Amino acid sequence: MTTATSVDPKAVVAYYRTASTGELIQRADALCRSVHGDKVWLRGLVEFSNFCGMDCQYCGIRHSNSKVERYRLTPEQIIDLTVQGHEAGLRTFVLQGGEDPWFTADRVAQLLDSIKTRTKGEVAITLSLGIRPRETFRLWKNAGADRYLMRFETSDPDLHARLRCGVSLERRLEALDDLRDLGWEVGSGFMVGLPGETEETRIRNALLCYEKHFDMVGIGPFIPHPETPLAQAPQQPLELALRATALVRLLLPLANMPATTAAGSLDKQGREKMMAAGANVLMPNITPEDVKKNYLLYPNKICLDESGFECINCLDIRTHLVQKTIDYARGDSPSWRSGQSE
Ligand code: SF4
After folding, report:
1. How far is the CA of 94 from the centre of ligand 1 (A)?
2. 217-229 pLDDT, tens digit each
3. Reported pTM
4. Which fold has domain 9-329?
5. Going by CA atoms, what residue is nearest to atom 3 of ligand 1?
6. 100 lines ligand 1 (CB under 6 A)
7. Phi and psi (nearest 5°) for 222?
């Protein structure tokens, strides 16, 4: 059905439909270990701005949530965080923000150049800055960025347009295709448990990840935020996200997949459960403690009171609980390295 190099998606989906969650997870875990070993890559996450011009219905920092205390780190602060992270041994940084117009194409390009210089070209930089023009993606790639994350969130075109201010799924996929054409290591993913989503949507979400050969796939449970239009939506169990993680792992053996903070926020052992279901990445949040409490896409987010550097010790213990070991190296996705995704 699935080996590291050959996947029969129809057989995988047929298996998924009938397998118990325990069986599914066991198989995904075995496959993950056969490809990635017991390693879990560490990424230093910097949430540098919670300003956003978009109004996604599920998101706690959406433009129209006037209760959010907005913040924006300066480029110098962002550079200092990556230098500090580099000294602590981290070799990948994820720079994530809302769709904040202050961070123009040129400002981000200058930032990338400074980070690469100050960290001696030894780190990979992942950007997560939403849909931008193809020429901007080209500029940032040339300025030294390595990877881009842009989750499509749902493969249902109507649901996508409804939840994301009318932006079409097609436009998002076009931007992901632009990134692929320009040589980026491309990450995407989806939310699990959105109101209006069905089991068939979740299967289509996973198959879309397979069809697009994403190098990285992030899957997080939907957690209703009280200051959004979806405040009253029901909370679905983490099990749905674990099943989706295992399904994607079986479809994309070579992809890097984070054990998401949202999973750890919904369930105290959520990240361990994700790692046991095929995830192989953790992202300690190194955003300064005085502002990271304001980057709440969903409520009850964990790890807000301690520095990301302190979190690494905790993550080390958590990975050992599932017989895995954290690794500080760049950890490029094997699919991108091998050109399988071309
Ligand atoms: S999901 Fe992203 S683009 Fe949408 S409102 Fe939140 S931060 Fe902005």
Report:
1. 16
2. 999 999 999 999 9
3. 0.96
4. TIM Barrel (3.20.20)
5. 54
6. no
7. -70, 130
